[in-house]
Amino acid sequence: MIIEAFIITVIPLFVYLIFASIEAGASLFLLWPRPLEHFSWGDFKVQGTVGKGSVLGAFAPYISPLWEVTNVFLVTFVVCVFTFFPKAVPVIAHQFLTLIFIIAVAFAVRIVGTLLLFYAEGLGRGAIALGKWCFFIGSFATLGLLGLLCFETLSGVGSGIAQGAWSFVVALWLMSLAIAFTFFRWYFAKPKSWRALGGLVLFLITLVFFKWVFFTFVAALWPYIVYPSVLATAAFTSPALAGIMFGSLIIGLILVVPALVILLYLMRRH
Amino acid sequence: MSPALAVATSTTAQAMYGRVLMGDSLGFHIIFALFGVGIPLLIALAHAIAYFKKDNDFLLMARRWSFPLGLLFVTGAASGIIISLQLNLVWPAFMSFAGQVISLPFFFETFAFFIEAIFLGIYIYGWDKLSKGAHLLATLPLVIGSTASAFFITSANAFMNDPSGVTVTRDASGTLIASAIHPWQAMFGPALFHEAVHSIISYYLTTALVFAGIYAWHLWKMKRTMHATRERYIKKALMFTGIVGFIMAIGIIISGDDSGKYLASNQPIKFAAAEGIFHDTTHAPLIIGGHADDADDRMQGGIEVPDALSELSYGRADASVKGLEDYDHSLWPPLYVHDAFDTMVVIGFLIFGIPCVFLILVWLRKRSAYSSVMLWAIMISGALAIVAVECGWILTEVGRQPYIIKGIMTTAEAFNPDPSLNVFAYLFPSAYLALFVLTIWILVRHVRRNPLPL
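Above: the input entities. Below: the structure tokens describing the complete assembly.
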């Protein structure tokens, strides 16, 4: 029961990291100085309502309906941690207070970027540039700091920064870039072309690799929530509660998954 | 004095930072969140009218309202995530306890949140891609998801106000031990339905009145230069939001009365502080206004309506109302909750009266329905409604002090004593303010750049 709860808790984080990687990749594209048509992975058909013909216009139809959903995965992860493993909260709040607050700041910066880029209208060059940088810095900072937090839970050094943490963060950034680039290569390719098919295959290979890395990490952390101070068994919620949560999870997924499929289907280009 | 209260008094100053931090965050979040609950209802109703009556004006309303909904959902989700992190960091002992007892509504809320986010995307994306019927149908999960998430989070709050479904003991070190946990009983506690109905109706009401206020402003500003088609559209929107506001205002008064009765019998300390009752009284008067004097335990000033409080809370003029004197002074909430309570109630009646007068004038076909005075009254009622929501929130949260979970855990012992929290107590309210200003700025800009088509 406890190991199932542990896996259920990390899955929203896994999905969040994938969606957030794609958004972070988009934020890097937005800083590309030339129109996307000149980008070497070309064949970007530009459409959309925000700034027709611009890089922003190309990404808005993908990003704007989805980031709301992306963020919910992060909320779900946080909620799963304190509902399944409530007794871990005091230790986490003690050891990672500053780090988690900085994540919240990075997240807020990302939201400011989102608002400026995709909601504010008729901005000047300066404000758009500010939006792009906020979106870029906020996206990568959120990803990197979440990676750092995960690494810290495994490192066992308490509240300091563990050795090798930063190289782990850089590796996570590279991983997320790989996810984003292969995704957009597929997403923007001419529908039903060989390029699209190749892009899709590359994207799926990247995802499988990421899944392997992520769950290797998760397996290394088990049976701890925070190594070496919090054991999953010690932090686990009451079994009565966990049973109901498993049941409602199934009902919830029956509602949410088809809805998500409809949304992704509406956003398709292929 | 119980061990918990001894802790409470020693760390009150530190806990202040936590309360400042949480109070400001939630104070901002509730504004984003209430529109996130209210706008879907307005959109769904307008879209349904447009569909069944084949009225394109209402379709235009629904389409135009989806912009602020999307925008507020982004800011609401942002502040929501920040708050979910803050809850854990600022109140670790509380979350650790709550996670063992009242985690169901938190868990369910994520699903409601998913449904809301996904169908928001489907709705905004569906204008050209979905059939008309399917598009209308997409508004239904949007309303259900947003209202359900408000319901679930209120459930967690209702548990804090009036916990049930758990037995609590303390071990030798004073740590709380939860046993005999009944998750469903904890979730559907005695306060839930009173609190949820009252707060959800207040979100609908506030949204409707704020929207009515915006249309009233348009009408007032462009009175002389108004194009006939545009005027018809604005009046239609004003009527629609006015009617929704009026219906919700009836609901707010009924549910407010019900909440008052519930408070009187189940949360007597909060009730006594809210009403400014210090001594046990039969034929208790309703005191409107005035200042609660902590020094000599009585109300100064204010208008007294004889017998009214006994009548309102128990249905009998000779019923006895418990006063604050029955409880240890250390259990009293700050007495300014009386001011918050009065403000909320007075505003409640005002924002019932204003749409009522407006609709009567329209019904009688009086030109004064669209007079400057009436339009300004509508504009002000929108702003007042937001103030009332904030006051209601202050009443329910501050009125529970010194406890974070009534009778179980004090706010101070729930608090994270880490000194670096002080920095964040200043940082986050400023970040929220920036986010708030940015959102308003974007909204105003959007309205300016997208005038109504003629």
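Note for the figure: The first helix of chain A runs from residue 2 to 30.
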